[in-house]
Amino acid sequence: MVNNYSLSIAQQQYTQLLNDDTDIILALGVVTGQMINQQKSYIKPTILFGVINADINILKTNQITSNVNNFTYILEQDSYKKDLEQLKSLTNFKKVGVLIEQAFIDVLPIKTTLDAIFKDLDASYVIIPLNEATNTSSALNAVDAVYLAGGFTMQDTNIKSLAKTLIEKGLPSFTINNSTQVDLGIMATNNSLNDYNQIIRRLALTVESYTSGNPLSEMKVLMTSKVKLSINYNTAEAVGVPIKYSLVNEAAFLGKFDNVVPDEKYTLVEAINKVLKKNISIQAVKEQVKLSGQDLKTAKNNYLPEIVASGAATYIDPDVAELGFGQSPEFQTLGSINLQQTLFSEQANATININKNLQKAEQQVLKAEELNIVFEVCNVYLNILILKVNAELQHSNLKVTKKNYDIAEQNFEAGFSGKSDMFRFKSEIAQNTQALVEAVNQIEQEIIQLNQLLNNPIDAKIDIEDASLELALFNAVEYDTFKTLLDSPVTRRPFVHFLIEQAQLNAPELKVVDYNIKAIERTVSLNGKGRLLPTIGLQAQYNTVFNRNGVGSTSPEGFGFTLPNTNYNVGVTVSIPIFNRNQTQTNKQTALIQKEQLTLNRENSELAISSNVNTNILNVINRMTNIDLSRVSAEAARESLSLTQTSYSNGAINIVQLIDAQNNYLNAQLNKTTAVYSYLLSTLTVERSIGHFFLLNDTKANAAFTSKFLEFQKNHN
To answer: What three-state secondary structure class fits 479?
Structure first.
């Protein structure tokens, strides 16, 4: 029977039950409890159960039994005061909105109770009726936190809607109800889900005891439930409430350990594309490529003409000028233009060729850096996914340990085990808690690393796409084909040889060496036959006299001629080096040694590439087999833990066996959940070796790569 928070209806329903053939009356709810407490006597056996608020004195809470004929109660005590103090410690709110149904406000002394509580809280409050309009209530804009003091019967969809509204408004929230509502998005509670289950078990035992002949008036009342803080990690992050690590030991965390409202969220391809555009290391190498381009321009400039214009003004001693016969005037201004241009130079040709190869080498260095950065992004990205799974598993493992502690406590109370088991599990809880803290911090460390690669502010709030989306991405580029080729011994060997060939063809590191060898070979050529080639240059000069004045500016009468005001000359120079202290031969020998050194380095790099591909392929095969085997292992470990927990609770086995089963299950889960990511990471390592990332190429390019292998296989059969 539902009274819809009406005392009069509750009384009518109770009277109806007294007048029909009901044997035992079970009463639940705040309004029902208010009505039951008002009864002067109980004609039929009546059991009041549920939750009572310690701050609102409806029943006497200092009694062991009810001492009332045909009446007992099984009540867990809640406390507005304790909840609000906890919310205050988490958020330091200044004004809190208390959400509660209007019916409770009408029936219970809510305002009087809250007034007394807030005298010691250094804060204020406003009561907001809990109804369909609460989500859009303007009263929510005037508070900096929300306390859900009602809402016990709210549907899950309504709780989710309310939680979403509060998150959007940036309001931290606390509920008087159990952790189910925290799981749906409310930030925190002091009540666990187990408390209500415990009440139901006590209720069943009480009914059983009464039907066995024990009077209700002599049965124990009230229940001492442990205050257990539960926090939704994602909601706390979303509303900006910093979670102290000291709370990890005393609180149960719900949700996932990632950013709910990140500034930006990346898929793997998006992260790779941004890194290629923004990464500082790549930008620095690009600048180096530009510098090598400037060196090439400088080398080519040797074939451009050099033109110099000059001017001068002279003054000569008049006595000397007079003796110059008009050729050395006292005052004279003049100018000239000089042109020099190399027509042919083996040294200039060699410098241009050498710098072209060095620029190409720098471009391959850039390509190698891009491949390294792409692989590093993939590595960090997959590590974040693995670490997120690890954090969730460590969180689940902590819950299992706490459950085992409860079992140990029950065994101790039942006499199945000693108190040492409880202490052992307390130690395990501390260790598991530390493991959880470290797991969360590892995620933060990898996020910082990803921010650095993306050239984001180190403290930028970013997140990556869920694992399921990324697995779909990998499946889209047909990694199953890769697995199929390696799974069969018939195709594996030629496929590995093909990958080695592709790695050596595509490796930018080898191309860097090749271009450096070409540059050295040009140096050898320059200091060999090239030294006999002449250097041919063009020289030209044009001179003009602007004016002559003073003594000697004109030729003496009868001298016969005067120098013209303008003149020019043109010449071609040819030079051939014959002997330059044997430096040419020394340069040639040095270049040959450098070439030999580079050749040896190339051979060593080829061997390293071949070794890396083979090693990486073996790693891929190991990861492939681990995927299926880890699933079987995890399932077996789960069933084993379940059986072991049952056996331990019955006193059939000792604590060591239970802890071993739990640790085995944790390791099996970690192995199972990381197996796929480890496989993908190992395949990406192979892709880095061969210089071809399937993720960054379209279907056509990947199909072309497969066609190359088929052609290779055909030619090598």
So the answer is: helix
Q: What are the strands, taking DSSP E only, across 101-250?
A: 124-129, 145-148, 173-178, 188-191, 229-232
Note the Cα 347 to chain centre separation in Å.
Answer: 54
Q: Are 602 and 513 in contact, with CB atoms under 8 Å apart? A: yes
179's enclosing H/E stretch is helix 179-183
> For 373-404, what is the HEC assignment?
HHHHHHHHHHHHHHHHHHHHHHHHHHHHHHHH
Bridge partner residues of 312 (DSSP) = 334
Percentage of the chain lying above the pLDDT 90 cut:
40
Distance CA 663, CA 666 (A): 5
Could you give the strand order of the β-sheet that contains 566-575, starting from the edge strand earlier in sequence?
Answer: 306-315, 331-344, 535-549, 566-575
* E strand map for 208-290: 229-232, 251-254, 264-266
Nearest to 412 by CA among 222, 648, 176: 648
Residue that the structure tokens 């690669």 belong to? 453
What is the DSSP-derived secondary structure letter of residue 242?
P
Provide CB contacts within 8 A for 194, sequence distance 6+.
none
What's the mean pLDDT in 559-581? Answer: 83
Whole-model pTM: value is: 0.74
Which of 208, 210, 160 is CA-nearest to residue 185?
A: 160
Between helix 346-414 and helix 508-526 the angle, nearest 10°, is 160
Residue 480 has pLDDT above 70, yes or no: no
Q: Tell whether the model's pLDDT for residue 595 goes beyond 90.
A: yes
Strands, E, within 54-129: which ranges? 71-78, 95-100, 124-129
The token pair at 422 is 């409880």
Q: Taking the CA atoms of 491, 494, 499 and 500 in sequence, report the sign of the dihedral they define.
A: positive
**Rg of the chain in Å (alpha carbons):** 44
Count the alpha carbons within 13 Å of 76 in the hemisphere toward its beta carbon: 23
- DSSP code of 324? T
Task: Render pLDDT for 201-242 as a digit per residue (tens, 0 to 9).
Answer: 888 888 999 999 999 988 887 665 566 788 888 899 889 888
For residue 521, give the nearest of 598, 620, 440, 420 by alpha carbon. Answer: 598
What distance, in Å, lies between the first and last C-alpha atoms of the chain?
A: 82
Residue 577 CA neighbour count, 13 Å, CB half: 19
pLDDT at 679: 83
Mean pLDDT of the chain: 86
CB burial of residue 690 (10 Å; 0-12, 13-18, 19+): buried
**Alpha-carbon distance values, 606 to 230, 293, 492, 506 (Å):** 58, 29, 20, 11
CA distance 620 to 679: 6
Per-residue pLDDT tens digits for 658-694: 889 988 988 888 888 788 888 888 888 888 888 888 8
Contact between residue 348 and residue 302 where contact means Cβ atoms under 8 Å apart: yes
> What band does 472 get if pLDDT is binned at 50, 70 and 90?
low
Average pLDDT for 150-164: 89
Q: Which residue has the tokens 């043109």?
A: 570
Instruction: Please tell me the chain's helix, strand, coil percentages from 3-state DSSP, rounded to the nearest 5.
Output: 60, 15, 25
Q: Which of 199-208, 243-252, 455-464, 534-543 has the highest mean pLDDT?
A: 534-543
Is 603 exposed, middle or buried, given 0-12, 13-18 or 19+ CB atoms closer than 10 A?
A: exposed
Asked if 244 and 86 count as a contact pair (C-beta separation under 8 A), the reply is no
The tokens describing 506, both together, are 């595509």
Between CA 58 and CA 330 the distance in angstroms is 126
Task: Kindly write down the DSSP assignment for every residue of 519-570, as one continuous string.
Answer: HHHHHHHHTTGGGGS-EEEEEEEEEEEEEEESTTSSPPTT------SEEEEE
Exposure on the CB side of residue 181, measured as CA atoms within 13 A: 27
